[in-house]
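Journal club prep, notes for RB
We'll compare a predicted complex against what the paper describes. Inputs for the NAP case:
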Amino acid sequence: MSSSPSSGWRVGRGSVCYPVMSEDTGSSLFRPDLLAGRVALITGGGTGIGAGITRVLARHGADVVLASRRREHLEPMASEVAQLGRDALVCQLDVRDRDACDAVVAQALDRFGHIDLLINNAAGNFLVRAAELSEKGWRAVVDIVLTGTFNMSQAVYPALRDSGGASIINITTTYVGSGAPFMAHSGAAKAGVLNLTRTLAVEWGGDGIRVNAVAPGLVEETEGARRLAESIGIVDAYRKQVPLGRLVTIDDVAATVLFLVSDAASQITGVEITVDGGESLGGGFKGISDALDGIP
Ligand code: NAP
């Protein structure tokens, strides 16, 4: 199998081949008009995994609202969405600010008239020993990840209730299940997001709103991977723990989000789907903890 990008396939470790959904919709299992008429609001939709999710939702017919703090992160993605023939609204937003979340929802409703999908993807994270984590650092991550997810969900709820078939996806992580050495702030916040996912699934199910989570393992070519793994040389330790033989790609995560927001998942709510090639089933975090212990 060729690794040519135009083929829509890439070759991973051990010659494992996998489809690259962002190359074209030809490798997608879903119809290109799957989300036609839908509006998706993606926090952190201009970079990394959020950009990949934005791309795949737009490629399948959705218009998008891109919301994060820096316009320079959002504008290029909005241009890409426009080239796909979809409409993109760019909104500057700090998810920690509840009033600002309301303002984004108002702008989106003004532009599109409805919001059907919410992807809570915005996050912050950094490596630090729990004993050395400052209150400011703890608060920053917990406020963005957990409070930000709650703020945005609550702000969008009335619009989702009116949508008739709405869906929220919260991006969590595999270390919610295993504990999160050197990421106590992020691990605790993401665990809170998982619990919130289940709570809202129950409370809002009667309103026709499904609420699910997607938990990636280490995702190659992302800021998260650079900051939390590449910077300290532990990518190989991760990769060795993946039974399927390669790291997760942005497209793997985006494809799972697409499935969960589609009608194919119309009876799925309150679940977390892990996308990690089986990494969290294998050696757990032992090898990584050992590697981190060697760092001065
Ligand atoms: P990323 O590119 O740094 O994405 C984070 C996004 O959040 C950025 O677009 C950022 O945009 C936005 N953001 C940060 N603080 C914000 C705030 N206060 N208000 C609004 N937006 C804010 O990192 P990534 O690696 O793609 O991660 C995306 C998601 O996947 C995160 O939820 C992360 O926890 C999760 N995840 C990542 C991995 C991985 O290996 N990368 C693994 C598991 C889970 P601005 O700077 O413009 O605000």
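Talking point for the session: The pocket of NAP is lined by residues 43-44, 46-50, 68-70, 73, 93-96, 121-125, 144, 171, 173, 216, 218-219, 222-225 (CB under 6 Å).
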